[in-house]
């Protein structure tokens, strides 16, 4: 059965969130559909200093506030993959992994995904020396020579970030200069440990368990230069060569330019009535968060006018969405006890958590295996404070046995261990995935759609997932959340999440140089973020 919304926003990055804020504030029924993590590509940016009015923040915090605004105005969110769209009629249909949704208007904000550089050995060494996120993986190459591939915004900004780890930084630029004019370019050029090679590309990387040799080629002369590490050393190669538009759903339906980007007018309207596009998916000169949110606002206000005409044309009676009034917000905030100065959870986090924890269908027990470490002390603060926020959460503390030091296990109300373990976490970016794991264990849990639910139930072999993460990694929570959701729905799946900073033996055993890293049944290693569908493909293989 199709569900009806006035407008559907496809994509939960800054453009989609901005559109949702404007649509919901105008009291339209709006649904935001995001297949991965709300926030988009900007969530992997460690420092945002060019967003007007915000002196300094990071991508995840910035987009989390956008999502909070949208929800406060009444926007709904759905974690699902859009599999198709019917856009030609007055009533449009968005097909997803969680069912079909009917709407009068669509704002497509699917964004773009990082491109591969295409050199020989790139895929072979992914996770073992080739990386795509400086924030997530830079620390693994402390004191090493790091190659940065690219000449645009991302390469410059991420290259500057990597200078804090690299012994030497070699920036490989295909053109005769960087493609941007920015003070950051001069800062990178002035760094004493940075060498910039223009009209150059990586031809190949070689090695064994890590990259020991990098072959560069001068694009003008054809001359090759080989960098070869000492036997006890290795290299890191970080790739930032731009993005490719997420346009698979649009081909044959919406006009695209020769590079695959959506063609829109100044109102962000496509060639199809009722379909608008916003953000990095569009033809534009500047792809930054500030232009994405501008696109979203313009698309939303343009769609508002179109919806008005459609309501009249189709003789529809409009239903207004109720915004969360300031009075209700104050009452909600007042219901949560204030944090003490030494508390693990601050007031804002407590207020955000209260409605989530109180939606639990069943109570759960958090079992802390405590040792004498600082991590255990922090974990104890956290589980105690969570139990104060909601009576749906209980805790117990027992002495840690070997292998379970500073570990939190999620159990049901009877104390049965559900096979969801966090070692040395939660904290940093993993706190949200920990709360999500609790929500999935207690119910109702994330709605992943009937097809995915059936695939989860169909796993009849026991499979154990060890997941190595870094608390600074913004991509790790996607994999952790997907794994925990599957484990919560099938007792054959168990998950242990490790903060790799505290488990060097694990890093050495599996030669982990990129996170997230997932090991299935102790020997099948996978790198990179995965959503529920992608993880189910691995588990069913």
Automatic annotation (TrEMBL):
UniProtKB keywords: Flavoprotein, Oxidoreductase
Record carries keyword Zinc: no
Domain FAD/NAD(P)-binding residue range list: 5-296
GO molecular function, one term: oxidoreductase activity
Coiled-coil annotated spans: none
InterPro entries (UniProt xref): AhpF_NTD_N, FAD/NAD-bd_sf, FAD/NAD-binding_dom, Ferredoxin-NADP_redctase_2, Thioredoxin-like_fold, Thioredoxin-like_sf
Thioredoxin-like fold domain boundaries: 465-533
Protein name (record): Thioredoxin reductase
């Amino acid at each position: 059965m199709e569900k009806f919304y006035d407008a559907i926003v496809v994509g939960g990055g800054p453009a989609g969130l901005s559109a949702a804020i404007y649509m919901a504030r105008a009291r339209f029924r709006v649904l935001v559909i995001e297949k991965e993590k709300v926030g988009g590509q900007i969530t992997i940016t460690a420092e945002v200093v060019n967003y007007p009015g915000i002196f300094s923040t990071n991508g995840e915090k910035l987009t989390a506030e956008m999502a909070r605004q949208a929800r406060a105005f009444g926007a709904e969110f759905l974690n699902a993959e859009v599999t198709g769209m019917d856009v030609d009629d007055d009533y449009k249909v968005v097909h997803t992994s969680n069912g079909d949704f009917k709407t009068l208007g669509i704002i497509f904000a699917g964004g773009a995904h990082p491109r591969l550089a295409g050199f020989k050995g790139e895929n072979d060494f992914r996770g073992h020396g080739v990386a795509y996120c400086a924030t997530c993986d830079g620390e693994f190459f402390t004191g090493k020579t790091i190659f940065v591939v690219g000449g645009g915004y991302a390469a410059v900004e991420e290259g500057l970030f990597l200078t804090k780890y690299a012994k030497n930084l070699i920036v490989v630029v295909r053109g005769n200069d960087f493609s941007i004019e920015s003070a950051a370019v001069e800062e990178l050029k002035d760094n004493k440990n940075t060498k910039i090679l223009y009209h150059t590309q990586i031809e190949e990387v070689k090695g064994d368990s890590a990259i020991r040799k990098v072959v560069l080629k001068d694009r003008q002369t054809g001359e090759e230069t080989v960098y070869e590490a000492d036997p006890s050393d290795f290299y890191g190669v970080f790739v930032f060569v731009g993005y490719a538009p997420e346009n698979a759903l649009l081909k044959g339906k919406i006009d695209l330019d020769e590079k695959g980007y959506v063609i829109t007018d100044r109102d962000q309207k496509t060639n199809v009535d009722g379909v608008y596009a916003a953000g990095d998916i569009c033809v534009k000169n500047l792809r930054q968060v500030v232009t994405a949110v501008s696109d979203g606002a313009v698309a939303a206000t343009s769609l508002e006018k179109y919806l008005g005409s459609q309501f009249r044309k189709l003789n529809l009676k409009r239903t207004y969405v109720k915004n969360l009034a300031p009075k209700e917000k104050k009452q909600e905030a007042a219901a949560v006890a204030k944090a003490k100065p030494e508390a693990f959870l601050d007031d804002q986090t407590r207020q955000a958590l209260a409605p989530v924890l109180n939606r639990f269908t069943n109570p759960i027990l958090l079992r802390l295996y405590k040792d004498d470490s600082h991590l255990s002390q922090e974990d104890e603060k956290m589980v105690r404070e969570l139990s104060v926020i909601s009576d749906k959460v209980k805790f117990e503390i027992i002495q840690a046995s070997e292998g379970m030091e500073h570990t939190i296990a999620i159990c049901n109300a009877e104390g049965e261990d559900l096979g969801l373990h966090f070692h040395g976490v939660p904290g940093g970016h993993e706190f949200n995935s920990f709360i999500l794991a609790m929500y999935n264990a207690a119910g109702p849990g994330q709605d992943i759609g009937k097809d995915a639910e059936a695939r989860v139930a169909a796993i009849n072999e026991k499979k154990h997932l060890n997941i190595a993460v870094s608390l600074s990694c913004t991509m790790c929570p996607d994999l952790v959340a997907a794994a925990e959701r599957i484990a919560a729905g099938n007792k054959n799946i168990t998950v242990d999440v490790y903060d790799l900073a505290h488990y060097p033996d694990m890093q050495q055993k599996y030669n982990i140089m990129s996170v997230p890293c997932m090991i299935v049944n102790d020997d099948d290693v996978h790198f990179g973020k995965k959503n529920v569908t992608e993880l189910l493909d691995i588990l069913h293989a």
